[in-house]
Design goal:
This protein is of the alpha/beta class. Helix content is 46%, strand content 14%. The protein is built from 12 helices and 11 strands. The strands form 3 sheets. It has a 5-stranded mixed beta sheet, sandwiched between helices. Strands 8-5-9-11 form a 4-stranded mixed beta sheet, with no helix packed on it. Helix 6 (179-187) runs antiparallel to helix 11 (302-319) and helix 11 (302-319) runs antiparallel to helix 12. It starts with 10 loop residues before the first helix and ends with a helix.
Length: 334
């Protein structure tokens, strides 16, 4: 398998880590899977990880154990993704930074394309999700076990509300470290600023950035309402609602026995469905809580925003050879 170039890790060390990881996993009777998350325990990713842990440990009779590391304990998005390929972490959630390793992932991060949880779930659990998973493995070596939700993301700002793209002109907006989001924010007139998830609160408080596009539950768990008092209405139109792949190194997964593979795959499928439901339920209650914290939720000119980013949709679909995939995603909107 051809692996992408990894920053800061020597090729020799990578090869040794992969060999050690695969060999020990295939031969050991008792296995421990390290499951790394950038989000806090209060975020639904943790609920999904906990459900997976419960199912795997119960069904394996304790021979497979899961150690969960939330809150970025094992690194930021890029570091976790690279560590899964290296073999020091077994499972993670492929967030925005993964698009640099698996370019096809850019297509589901195109702003204003995926509208809400129903649309996202149709993508994640259907043929589009299968096609994405195949491409991700082909491009980056990740096996996609299932798809978590990351909720609906509005645009949060510190100094003024956003109603039209003109309101974003020159505003320093934190974006996930992925090319399509940088390009889209630039198309909207903003000044995109890549920044790790765990640094957003401090960045907003210190004025390093003036806004972000966090999902609404992250706004709550990261206490963003303390530093950013304006949000666009995610129930009117969501900036991004992409499905997030739960990933394992494909070679690592293939080194397991068929019984272990089936157990892990089935447990993660169930855990992902549970995580998506938890996200849905928590989002249903978040609006009033944010308003009580003094957040102003604003209506936007949806047509104006979509018109600005549609050229980005087309550009990335063409560059990725994913025109058909883009049309499949659009067809699932209804």
């Amino acid at each position: 398998m051809k692996f992408p170039k990894l920053s800061g890790i020597g090729a020799g060390l990578l090869g040794l880590a992969m060999l050690a990881g695969s060999a020990s996993y295939a031969s050991a009777e008792d296995l421990t899977l390290r499951f790394a998350l950038i989000t806090a325990e209060s975020f639904p990713y943790f609920d999904g990880a906990q459900k997976f842990k419960e199912l795997v440990e119960e069904r394996s009779g304790g021979s497979i154990k899961v150690a969960i590391f939330p809150g970025g304990q094992l690194g930021a998005e890029r570091e976790i993704n690279e560590a899964i390929l290296e073999g020091s972490i077994q499972i993670g959630v492929g967030a925005g930074a993964m698009a640099n390793l698996a370019p096809i992932y850019n297509i589901v991060q195109v702003p204003f394309l995926i509208q809400g949880q129903k649309h996202m779930t149709a993508i994640a659990t259907g043929e589009v999700g299968e096609k994405l998973a195949e491409k991700i493995e082909e491009q980056a070596g990740f096996r996609v076990l299932a798809w978590f939700s990351t909720g609906d993301s509005p645009i949060e700002t510190v100094n003024k509300p956003v109603h039209t793209p003109a309101d974003l002109k020159g505003v320093k907006i934190r974006v996930i470290e992925t090319p399509v989001l940088v390009d889209a924010m630039s198309a909207l007139g903003a000044n995109p600023t890549p920044m790790p998830y765990t640094e957003v609160y401090t960045g907003l408080k210190q004025g390093v950035i003036e806004g972000a596009h966090l999902d609404v539950l992250s706004v709550d768990t990261l206490k963003i309402a303390e530093v950013a008092k304006y949000m666009t209405d995610w129930e009117q139109i969501t900036f991004v609602s992409e499905p997030r792949p739960v990933i394992m190194n494909a070679e690592y997964f293939d080194s397991l026995t068929p019984e272990q593979q089936s157990l892990i795959q089935e447990a993660m499928t169930e855990a992902a469905a549970y995580e998506r439901q938890v996200f849905h339920d928590k989002m249903a209650a978040i609006r009033s809580k944010l308003e009580e914290q003094g957040v102003t939720i604003t209506q936007v000119d949806t047509d104006a925003f979509v018109e600005k980013v549609k050229p980005i949709w087309d550009k990335y679909a063409k560059d990725l050879g994913a025109e058909d995939l883009l049309q499949d995603i659009i067809a699932l909107q209804n």
